[in-house]
Amino acid sequence: MSQTLKQKPTTHGFANAAIKELGWWRAHKFLFLRRISQVSVFALFALSPFIATWAGVWLLKGNLSASELFGVVPLSDPLATLQVLLTGHLPELSLVLGAAIIALFYAILGGRVFCSWVCPVNMVTDLASWLRRKLNLPRTSEMPRNLRYYLLALVLFLPIVTGLTVWEWVNPVPVIYRAALFGAGSGLWILAAIFLLDLFISERAWCGHLCPTGALFGLIGKVSPIKVSAVNAKDCDNCMDCFVVCPERQVLKPALKGKQPMITSSDCTQCGRCIDVCAQRVFQFQNRKNQNRIAPKAENNQ
């Protein structure tokens, strides 16, 4: 029996086994829940002015860089706040408190949950990935995954030497919100560049290798108690659908082949797509303290 993880020849459509076994909805459940989450967050920002006019209450005022919940609870992007601090200017206490609240929230849920469940750029990069699959474009060489940490360091260094929050001028997350909410479309070229980069040059280049925001949230989420776990690794039939759809596929192999089934890597976005597309129900969300050490099947061991 082979001692390596081999990919089966692809003779069927992507995730057809999961659709046949689980039904169309269960094979796409987390994908749709993520889209609902992403659209709902945007809708709260977009509709809050109208709700405030009608009911006198702001549900969510501002944008993903800095906002207020119900006009009382401050929420702010930890990376944006760090940049302000590094410019040498003392920000308002509400900005620092908002960053602490967001950091604590994602430390509990898993930092890169932001990337897959909130960030609007994720929809752009997922579209590029879907098109790559539909067009059957060849796999391209990947950039070093630690490159995003170097870019994070650069983003934090620039305010020290310039006194300006330089990254916020081109950060694609607020670019989408400014374009959609205020008609400021001058920065949409950044989104187009990310889409073309992911589609034609390097698969999952932006979210998987470059984004400094994702790098910081990954560091914040290292301590999260909620993780994806290959609880039924012994049932894996090597269909490779999870590898096809995972935005950080390097996190799957240790869980499937190692002694520790839980994906503890901070790279995991906890998008749940590996759970969706697996007909064998290998993956589940699990609390870290309840994790079980499951022996993977023999052919997955090296």
Automatic annotation (TrEMBL):
Signal peptide: none annotated. The chain crosses the membrane at residues 39-60, 95-128, 149-170, 176-197. One of its GO terms (cellular component) is plasma membrane. GO terms for molecular function: 4 iron, 4 sulfur cluster binding; metal ion binding. Residues 227-257, 259-288 form the 4Fe-4S ferredoxin-type domain. Gene3D superfamilies: 3.30.70.20. Keywords: 4Fe-4S, Electron transport, Iron, Iron-sulfur, Membrane, Metal-binding, Repeat, Transmembrane, Transmembrane helix, Transport. PROSITE patterns: 4FE4S_FER_1 (PS00198), 4FE4S_FER_2 (PS51379). It comes from the Bacteria. This is Quinol dehydrogenase ferredoxin subunit NapH. The lineage of its organism: Bacteria, Pseudomonadati, Pseudomonadota, Gammaproteobacteria, Alteromonadales.
